[in-house]
Amino acid sequence: MPVPNSLRCLVRPSTGLPVSIPRTAASLGVPSAGLLGTPLLAAASFSTTSSRSEGASGIAKNHHRGGKKTFTVKKKAFVLERGKSPLPGERKAYRKRIILSNDNALAVPWLTDLGPAELSNENNVARVMGIPEEVQDQLRASEAFKTTQCWRMFRKPAVLVRKETVDLTRRMDRAAQNNEMLRLVVTGDKVAGKSLMLLQAMTHAFLNDWVVIHIPEAQELTTACTEYAPIPNTDPLQYMQPVYALKLIQAIKKANEKVLSKTFTRNAHPHLPQNIPANTPLLTLANVAKESEAAWPVFQSLWAELTAQGVARPPILLSIDGLAHMMKISDYRTPAFDLIHSHDLALVRLFANAFGGGLKLPAGGAVIGATSRSNAPRCPSLELAVSRREVEQRIEASSKAAGSGSGAETTATATEEVPQRDPYFRGYDDRVEAVLRSVEVLRVGAIDKNEARAVMEYWAASGMFRSVVDTKTVTEKWTLGGNGVLGEMERASLLSMRM
Amino acid sequence: MATPANLLRLCLRPNRRLSTVYSIPFPRPATSRPLSTTQWRGKIIVPTEEEKAFTGEPGPDIRNPGEFLAGLLEEEDITNEEREEAQRMLADWEKLDPKVKREYDTLREQVDEGTRGLRALQRVKRSTFWHEDEVDNDMLTDEVGEDDFEEDDIMAMGHAKLEEHREFREYARLAVWEMPLLSRLAKPFQPPTEQEILRFRYTTYLGEVHPSDRKVVVEFCPSDVPGLTPAQQLKLKKLAGARFNPEKEIVKMSCERFEHQAQNKRYLGDLVDKLIAAAKDPTDMFEDIPLDTRHHKFKPKIRFPKDWHVTEERKKQLGTIREQALLLDESKRKEGALVDGVRTIQEALNVRVDGPVLSLKGRPTPSLRASR
C-alpha cells in the first residue's frame, strides 16, 4: 500500500472532507505526519464542522492520481523518394522540344528528297517525299514543326504530296511569275492537315529561294504575352512588339540566310545602331538587331528593303498559323485602358494589310493563313468570310465551266446562296470582313484512298505500322479515320498502343 | 271537417322538427398545401332559408294546438279554405275540456323531455385515429349495417357489386347501341377554298367549365392572303413578329381575353384585317428592318443521303472498284511491291543480328535465335 493511502487509513472519518497528505511531504519523510490522527492542515479546535478553508480545497485539487501514462510512438511521415526534380523550365523544354528523327525507325529505301519543282508536279500526288536537310533546318528555325505532329516516329521528316499541295504550290508559282500577291486562307476540319499544308508551302518557298516570314502562333502576338509599346507619329495609333520582333528577325535571319546574303540594300540606313550603307547584304542589316530596343526599327528597315521596288528582290511568303487569333480584338490595352484591335498591332497589321490586298511586292509572293480548329477563339466574321468566299469560288468555277461548255454541274451550284450576315447578331467585325473580303480559300479535306495507301506504305516501311498494306487495310483505316481525315488515320493506326 | 286524422296531423304539427342528427364530415382542405403554417379553416356553410326557419326547438309561444291555430290565422299567406278549416278546428279546440288541454300540455312536456337526447347535435369526433366516423364516398356500400345478415337476402356488399355491374352494362349498352349513331352526324371533309385562309382552333372540355375553353387560335399563311405583293407579304411577316414561324411560313395568334369564344374569334378576325390593312399601307414598308427570326430555332432535317442508297448501278460500280483493288493488290504482290510492316521489321532485325547477339540477362532470346 502506498504511503499516502496508508496514512489516510489513520484519519478519522468524522473529519468529513477527505484529506490527503501531499506526496511530497510523505516522500520527504515529514516526521510521523499526524500519527495521532491530526490532519496536516490546522483545524479549529473543538469544532465538529469540517474544515472548508481555501488551503484544504487546494490540497484536494492538487492531488491527482497518476494514471497509466500512454507512450505513443509517432509515425514518421512517409517520404517518397522522387529523385532529382527537373530544373525550372526543364519540363516545358521537354514538352516543347521538336524531335525530327528516330534512330529506331527503319529508313525507307524509296524515299527521295524534295526538289524545287517537286511539290508542284502533278505526278508526285500520292507520294511521300522527304524534306532535305537544309530545308529541315530552315523550317526548324522558323518554327514550322509542331509538337503535335508525328515527326518523332520516323527516320527523317517526310511529307505526303496531296492534290491540295500541288494546287497551292502552283498558285504560289503563278503569283511569283506574275509579280502578284497570292492571298489565301487554308481551312479545313480538325487534324485535316492545315498546318502541314502551311509547312509544305514554306518548304516550297524555301526550295525556290523565297524569303519566308512565318508566325507560328498568331496568339503569341495578340494574347498580351509579349511586350508592346506605341509607335509615335502613327494615326491611328499603332503598337510595336519589340521582343517578338527581335525573335522574328532572328528567325528570319536564320531561316533565310542564303537568300538574304544575296540580296543587297538599296538605301542607306543611318538611323540604326550600326550604320548600314547601300549595297550591304540584308543579312548584315538583320544582324544589327541584337537587342529588343533596336528590333523594331531594324524590322522596319528590313521590311522596307525587302519590298523596295526597282531592284532585284526575292518573292516573299508571309505565313501565319492560328488565323482566328489575328482576327479578333487583342488583349492589349491602350493607355486609356481600352482594348486594342489586333489590326492596330504593327506586326499583325502587316499581315492584315497583305490579306486585304494593300501590299505590293516587287517580285510577288504569297500571304497564307491557316485556321485552327482546336485553339481558336470564336470569330464569326472569319467564319462568315471563309464560308462566303468558298461559295463565291464555287459559283465562279461553275460559271467558268458553263462558259467552257459543260453545263451539267452549273445548275447545282448556281442555286447556292452566298451566306450573309445575320442582321440580329452583334459580334461581327467590319475590319476583319474588309480584310478577308477577297482572299482565296483553300479547303483541306480528306485524303483519297490512293494518298492513304501511299502514306500507309510509308508507315509500314518505316516499321511503324505492323500490317500488310493492301486495299483491305487501307480501306479499314481510311474509314476509321473519318473517311480519310489524315490526323484521325494517324490516331487510328500509328498512335494506338496496340502493336 | 274535423276528422280525427286531420286533427291529429294538426296537433302534431307544432312538434315537427328537422332531424337533428347531422353527420358533420370531418372538414379537410381539398388540396393540402405543403408547408403551410396557417391553420386551415372549414368552409363557411350559410344555412338555407328552410334551415333558418326550423331551428329545431319550437318557439316558446306555441305550446298547444290552440296557440298554433291562432298563430296560423294571423298569417296572411294562407288560403281561405285553410283559414276556414283552422277557424273550425280552433273552435273545436276551444270546446275541449280544460283537463284534456292540461293533459296535452303534460304529454308534450314529457315527449320533449324524452326526445331531448335524440335531438342533441351529434358531432363527429375529430380526434379518432382512423377518422372512423368520416364518410367515405368512394366505397361501394355505405357501410351501415353492412355485416348484418338477415338470412333473407344477399349482403350489402353483394348488392353493391351488382349495382356496379349494372352501371358497367349501362355504359356498354351505350357504346354498342348509341355511339355508332354518332357517325350519322359526321360531315365529309371539305378542304378550305382559296377564300378561306384562316384556320381557327377552339377548345372544348365537353361541357365542363374551364378557364381556357374560351381560347381561340388562328393560323394563316401570309402568302395565301389575296392581293398582297411580295413586299406587303414581307411587311406582314415583320408585323407579326414572334408569331411568325419562318420554317412553316405561318402566322399563329391566339386570344382568350374575352369571356366568350365568339368574342375572342371576332377579335382575332378583326386583328387579321387590321394586320392586312397595315401591310398594304405604303407609308412605311419597314424596308430598313430585316425579318427577325430569333424567336425560332431552325431544326436541321436530317435525311438519308440519296447517294448512299445501294441501287443496282451502285452495286455494279462498287463491284468494279473492288475488283480493281484486288487486281492491284495481286499485281503488287506478284511484283513484290506490297509493303508488309511485320516482314519489314523482321528483315531489318535479321540484318542487325549479324553483329554481336544481344541477350537479356539470364534469358535466352528465342525469337532472335529462331530467326537466325
From TrEMBL, chain A:
Q: Biological process GO annotation list?
A: mitochondrial translation
Q: Where is the composition biased (Low complexity)?
A: 398-417
Q: Name one GO cellular component term.
A: mitochondrial small ribosomal subunit
Q: What is its main location?
A: mitochondrion
Q: Where in the cell is it found?
A: Mitochondrion
Domain of life, per the record?
A: Eukaryota
Q: Which UniProt keywords apply?
A: Mitochondrion, Ribonucleoprotein, Ribosomal protein, Transit peptide
Q: Specify where the region named Disordered lies, as residue ranges.
A: 395-423
Establish whether keyword tRNA-binding is in the entry.
no
Molecular function GO terms recorded: structural constituent of ribosome
**Family assignment from sequence similarity:** Belongs to the mitochondrion-specific ribosomal protein mS29 family.
Q: What is this protein called?
A: Small ribosomal subunit protein mS29
Automatic annotation (TrEMBL), chain B:
Write the protein's name: Mitochondrial ribosomal subunit protein-domain-containing protein
Recorded GO cellular component terms are:
mitochondrial small ribosomal subunit
InterPro entries per UniProt: Ribosomal_mS35_mit, Ribosomal_mS35_mt
Q: Name one GO molecular function term.
A: structural constituent of ribosome
Organism superkingdom: Eukaryota
Query: A Gene Ontology biological process annotation?
Result: mitochondrial translation
Arranged from A to Z, the UniProt key words for this protein are: Coiled coil
Q: Which residues form a coiled coil?
A: 69-96
Residue ranges of every copy of the Small ribosomal subunit protein mS35 mitochondrial conserved domain listed in the record: 188-308
Q: Does the keyword Cell division apply?
A: no
